[in-house]
Amino acid sequence: MEFFQHVLNALQFGSFYALIALGYTLVYGVLRLINFAHGDIFMVGAYIAYFVAIMLLGADGVAAGAGLSPGLTLAITVPVTMILTSLVGVTLERTMYRPLRRKGADRLYVVITALMAGLILENGNLALLGASRKSFPELLQKVVWTFGGVSVTNLKVIVIVAAVVVFGLLQFIVTRTKIGMAMRGISYDKFAIPLMGIPLDTIIVFTFILGSSMAGLAGILFAMSYPILEPYMGALIGWKAFIAAVVGGIGDIRGAIVGGFLLGFIEIGVVAVFPSTLRDLFAFSVLLGILWLKPTGLFGVAKTTKI
Amino acid sequence: MKNMTVKVLLAVLALALGAFALTGCGKDGDVIKIGFNLELTGDIPKVGEASKFAAEMLKEDINAKGGLEVGGKKYKLEFVYQDNEAKAESAVNAALKLITQDNVVAIIGPNSSKQAIPAGGACNDNQTPMVSPWSTNPDTTKDRPWVFRAAFLDPFQGPVAANFAAKQFGAKTSAVLFDIANDYSKGLAEIFKTEWEKKSGAGTVVAFESHGTKDQDFSAQLTKIVAAKPDFIFVPDNYNQVALIIKQARDLGYKGPFMGSDAWGSAELMTLCGKECIGQFFSTHYAAAGAQGATKEFIDRYNEKYKYVPDDVAALTWDATRLVLQAIQEAGKVEKDIKTERKIVRDALANIKEFAGITGTMKFHGTGDPDKCAVVVQISPEGKFEFKESVCP
Amino acid sequence: MQKHTFTITMFAGMAVLAVLAQLGVINQYLQSVIMLMGVNIILCSSLNLVNGYMGEFSCGHGGFMCVGAYASSLVTVLCFSKNHILGAPLLPDSLALLAFPLALAAGAAVAAVAGLVVAVPSFKTRGDYLAIITLAANYIVISAIDNLEIIGGPRGFMGMNATVNAMNDLVQIPWMLLWVLGGTLFSVWILRRFVSSTLGKGVPAIAQDEIAAEIMSVDTNRMKLIAFMLSSGLAGLAGGLFAHILGYVNPHSFDIMKSTEVMVMVYLGGMGSLSGATLSAVLFTVLLEVLRPLEIWKWVVIPLLLILLMQFRPEGIMGNKELSDLFPKLKKYYSFK
Amino acid sequence: MSLLEIKGLTCRFGGLIAVNDFNIELGERQMVALIGPNGAGKTTVFNLISGFYQPSEGAITVLGKDTRGMRPHQVTSLGVARTFQGIRLWGEMSVLDNIRVSQHYRCGYSLLDCFLRTRKYMLRETEIERTAWELLEAMDLKDCAHELPRNLSYGLQRRVEIARAMSLKPSLLLLDEPAAGLNSADVEGLIKLVRWIHDTYPVTIWMIEHQMKVVMSLCSHIKVIDFGATIADGSPAEIQANPAVIKAYLGDDTI
User: Fold this and answer.
1) CA distance, residue A174 to nearest chain D CA (Å)
2) pTM
């Protein structure tokens, strides 16, 4: 029974890794840019969800609260948060990444800029909102189902389903739609794409919208599952999701989802079998081993160099 | 053109360096300067913020009365805050800056042992008294005559929790969940384990699990703990993690009680944890609910000013700062020379045998570590921390 | 003459700093800032070898620094201080001056060996996949030390002050300042010598075209091994100095935050420029100290400044040029090889 | 002992046979060409020789040494230098440095020598530097010694690439389409340069080339392959008359 409980736990936490890893991989797949601010965009998403929710609920002493029911609040919060979070992502791209790209800077300078942008989001939040943590209101009546010693909450099920649905949606967009084709095209040749009459910047902005709104969605689900918000909440999970995306084969949507779940299973598996103090040591050694055996990740294709 | 930019940059850099070398030559009037070496950013900003708030309140109090009276003369207080970013090297730099640039008489902080141990070394080497409000690691004050602290040590708190839980829950077995990357949490967890196994026999700590500092998911550890069926779970963790741990344990079907440590003692615990925490016990420095006298006054005023009930860090900072101020007063005079002043303040600090703080009475025995009583509180249905038992060494 | 001006200036500068420190003109705080600056210069220039010259993206430099810090601390603590687990000191205090550089070298050597963890996978993989391997290596080092109870685990490790005190007992001068300055000079000097030699130029050749390098007789695996081990070894040296400046180490001082800090310094200075690395390390350390009064806003202002700087100069302060490339007149006065 | 001996060389990528039973034997100071239609496997042969691919079957012997299992830099240090179809110079390094680094295997000093600037180091470095300057001088590249290759014209880049290969002091020089992308004036220059190299240095030159003008005016012997298999072998005149070659290039003329 303990085994099934662990599997469920791994599925749930893996879903978060996967959702965030999807954002990394989308942007990477198009721009070859590691958007290190992504973990913090996720954090901003959670905070936006918080403010939207308490505004609508009228909780926590917000006088202007609309006093809506929790269910209705949730229904409105999800799309609003996704839109607002994608705005944050697009702002970063417009104000910081695009000018650098235009100047032809080395790709790693854009990566470092992303890292700095993440720090600004974290510490700006700390400076503006203070060090107090925020408690996310309960928008969904929690139901715990127990089957012979295995406990599942309705939220866990929603999170896992959401990860799978988002994966399916993104896979559809990228492989079956015109805009997805353009996205894949950019990753092959950034210079040829504008010549084909495809608006490069529009596609890039679309990618950021897609990636950041997924971070926003992950932010809401995370805030509902772990209802304590703090400015640094996105840092660690962001790094780990990045690792998951790379282990899966960065740039490939299947890789992100598999990498995310894999990391969830490894981490929880190590805790389940070994003393939990060894978790990081073992989990990262396993990942190192995987990359040793498959140097371009699980789904990554080795770039063939023509001489 | 491009070279021009570099040259301008280099010039700016040179200027910045020059300006930097010239900073920090202040003048001293009839003021007493005390430095604060706090974790305002980094991993635990809330701790630094609470310390700063408490200190500000104390300063306003005393300055409103015209200042601190030493040897018949009133001196205004000036508190200098330095952020140590919750980093060891930054804490040393902050301490050295306070000592050599800001010319403070004494330093309060850092709070966390990771910063307090190296900063304590710097203060001791430079003969400046330092009081850490919150550090519980024995190394902070060990062999350092200039370093003091206001908190009790882990080896005292561990047994308090073990004894209380055995009695209250009638427990035979226990489980522990702690933060591997936090020396406070790990130290307390280990002392608790030794103490419990001494009492109830080997193997009665049925699960001993850890997590990382910024983790938010504890389901794997809790699944193992729940499967081991302990009579209660000891969680020597920070309050923000406690809130998540208790919620997740309940989701996994655990119905038993929890026992906590002083790091639970924050007003935020209840806003974050809500009804799930009601009825749980933890050992701490003081009980906010039902507090009397100076303690109550402090809590009420802090609550009014900053809109939340103060954490133990705030209360301990208050005590630590008052301890230093008392030493300054007992020294009887304020020396012009900062080095002599620090010396007499340290000697006065070392001479304090008993100090009535708002976190209880502290007795010093020349080691810089206080003996003080711990209290065990229970979280009431209104979310107040109600006094349950007091344990004195 | 110009062959030696640089060396002479540097040694004279060191001597002047030491005398000023000895006379108390430079107070403890400034000394400590200068020492951390030195450590940052070592870290930044050594990471520049991998991230700048070799064009890899290593983001686990803190891990190697950690290994070096613990290794050299263990040696000095074993030799010169009483520790409740490791026992009585093995050597008399009078040998401290001799043993200290050996301890630093030991730390560097152990860190260099740890560099193999990253160097060997780099034969097969590169770019972002290698970045993850370095990241994982950093986590593994910290987690391993957390689990090593004998050296304090998360509680940290101390006792290194005994060695510094022993040196002070011999002659009362600012020893650590001298060691750090010496270590910094040494690191920059051997890196400069390495990258200006034909052997060392194989490293940028790998960055620019690995296949051409291999076909043109550059043993790429050997060069990668050398670059990674030299880089991590110097990070270990920086770690050893850092540990003895603070007199206390804690595994979490070397986490991913430290690694990113060093990374930022490298790209700020410019990929493949030693003077850029030195300048940016100095600039970064000074910024950290000057902006202290801003408290929480400091960590909003610093990234903002760096972002602006990168918009302004998208190839870092120096690009891949050295100081003497930008100011050709300087060549008249010194040559640094 | 022959300079290069290839026997039964076969290379498969999955199901595709890129090179099939290829044989050749080269002596000293020869000048030969390998031609064939696009995708015939010519470059693959070069890649196999330089150790970039490992043969599926067959053996390559350079100066009596079997090169199977060797890494490219090891093969190179036996005396096999090559250029590339697309120019692969190190773009951020000066022309001089390009030619210094290519003598890497001749460094011969240890890391410690490098740090301490020992006598050995100084000697080797002077030697390397001298070789580089001599080559630049001889190949008329002295003026652009301190330029970055990417700032040079395509023709000059070709010349630098050949100079870089020659700095290895090879006994076998493999040129992979040296005339690709050059204008007719540059092609004339190239022909002169290659002939001059062949006359001046003790080197065998083996080139892949599509421009028949270059091949016919330089080479004494031509080998033609198609779909990995050798279809003709002989002097320029013989090849020009060979119907199989014409068929391979132009297809069946039955249309």
Assistant:
1) 30
2) 0.91
